[in-house]
Amino acid sequence: MESRRYQDGLAVFEKMTGKDGIVILEHIRELYPDMAHLIVTNAFGDIYTRPGLDLKQREIVTLSSLITQGAMDQLPVHVSAALNVGLTPKEIVEIVIQCTVYAGFPKALSALHIVMDVCKEHSICIEM
User: Fold this and answer.
1) Of the listed ranges 8-12, 19-23, 24-28, 118-122, the one predicted with least confidence
2) 3-class secondary structure, 53
3) Is residue 1's pLDDT more than 80?
4) Whole-angstrom Cα distance, residue 75 to residue 112?
5) Which of the listed CATH numbers 3.60.21.10, 3.60.20.10, 1.20.1290.10, 1.10.10.10 matches domain 54-128?
6) Is residue 72 a contact partner of residue 81, using CB atoms and an 8 Å limit?
7) 24 vs 19, 44, 101, CA distance in Å?
8) For 16-31, what is each residue's pLDDT tens digit?
9) Which of 12, 86, 104, 113, by CA, is between 20 and 30 Å from 6?
């Protein structure tokens, strides 16, 4: 069963994060293999594969949660993942704007800068 959880989780992780995510995962694995294993099996094998929400919906929740927590170091990979699963840059900016009400302007502005940087890295124009 553990092997299936890992395989399913890795497939979702790769779909969402692409090569950049795999590179990050390998860096984590080099530092502490158990953490990489937990990320793949727990977060992606157990949670992201559940029925009920599609990957776009899960990324909306994830982006909102990260912004509200102020977990900006995790935000770039999830902004990229959100783009990979079909969220538009405009939708991502709207998520950031929505978070101003619950997280405050400082966290939302920090998030907006990250969204802008990720879009620039991917040569994506944010059209409003």
Assistant:
1) 19-23
2) coil
3) no
4) 10
5) 1.20.1290.10
6) no
7) 9, 15, 32
8) 999 888 999 999 999 9
9) 86
- Tens digit of each residue's pLDDT (9 = 90 or more) over 57-106: 999 999 999 999 999 999 999 999 999 999 999 999 999 999 999 999 99
- List, as one string, the DSSP characters of 68-120: HHT-TTTHHHHHHHHHHTT--HHHHHHHHHHHHHHH-HHHHHHHHHHHHHHHH
State the amino acid at position 49 in one-letter form: T
| 52 φ/ψ sector (left φ>0, alpha ψ -120 to 50, else beta) | left
The interaxial angle of helices 55-69 and 2-31, nearest 10 deg, is 40
The alpha carbon of residue 60 and the mean position of all alpha carbons in its chain are separated, in whole angstroms, by 9
Q: Residue 3's pLDDT is what?
A: 86
Could you state, in order of their start, the residue ranges of all structural domains in the chain? 1-50, 54-128
Count of all residues that appear for the chain in the document = 128
Q: Residue 49 in contact with residue 12, Cβ under 8 Å?
A: yes
Q: Find tokens 């899960």 and name the residue.
A: 58
